[in-house]
Q: What sequence folds into this?
């Protein structure tokens, strides 16, 4: 299987796909957010929200009776970019991205004030020819708008260009399909922990399985 030859461009998610963060950092952030909101988050709840295991994080928060706006304001206030970067590590099987000889773009829900320090720390900023950190203005995956924006920046479209988007969440697969791309789902957490099976054009536990 030679996916580099099969596709004219690649798009990738960041958190959970190319990089991950130590659990201790996640737990500490949710402890501080919980203190601010007057609500404790269990390990399972923190895992669900951090990894987006049930799909829409806002919908999940609402089901738990937590106001999404208040949560995200507190969450972003409690994230320290330098600490986040220091406790982030690169998945070894993601190294192939640096060797791709086609246009490569990054489409991530990681906010810009966190994304840049993380990219610098793990040394992958030069992997991408274009990147976008989703906001309310750009839209969030599975909305195709942020994907199509990066495609435009890369100078690729559907007129003869075949692309693929790789990510660890159902929203990544949805964004790929909504934008007319193939989707690779890399299952970092396992179906049992996720509680469901995310389907994509390719379903792998490691990018090594693609080569």
A:
């Amino acid at each position: 299987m030679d996916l580099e030859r099969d596709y004219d461009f690649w798009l990738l998610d960041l958190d959970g796909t190319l990089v991950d963060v130590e659990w201790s950092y996640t737990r500490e952030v949710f402890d501080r957010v919980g203190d601010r909101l007057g609500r404790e988050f269990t390990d399972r709840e923190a895992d669900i929200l951090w990894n987006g295991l049930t799909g829409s994080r806002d919908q999940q928060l609402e089901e738990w009776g937590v106001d999404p706006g208040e949560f995200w304001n507190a969450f972003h206030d409690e994230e320290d970019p330098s600490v986040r970067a220091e406790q982030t590590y690169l998945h070894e099987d993601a190294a192939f991205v640096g060797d791709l000889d086609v246009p490569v773009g990054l489409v991530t829900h990681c906010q810009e004030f966190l994304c840049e320090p993380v990219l610098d720390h793990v040394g992958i900023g030069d992997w991408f020819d274009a990147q976008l950190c989703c906001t309310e203005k750009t839209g969030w995956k599975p909305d195709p708008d942020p994907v199509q924006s990066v495609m435009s920046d890369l100078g690729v479209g559907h007129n003869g260009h075949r692309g693929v988007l790789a990510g660890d969440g159902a929203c990544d697969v949805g964004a790929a399909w909504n934008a007319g791309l193939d989707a690779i789902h890399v299952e970092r957490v396992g179906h049992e922990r996720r509680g469901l099976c995310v389907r994509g054009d390719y379903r792998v536990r490691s990018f090594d399985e693609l080569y």
Notes: The chain has two domains: 3-21+88-210, 23-84.
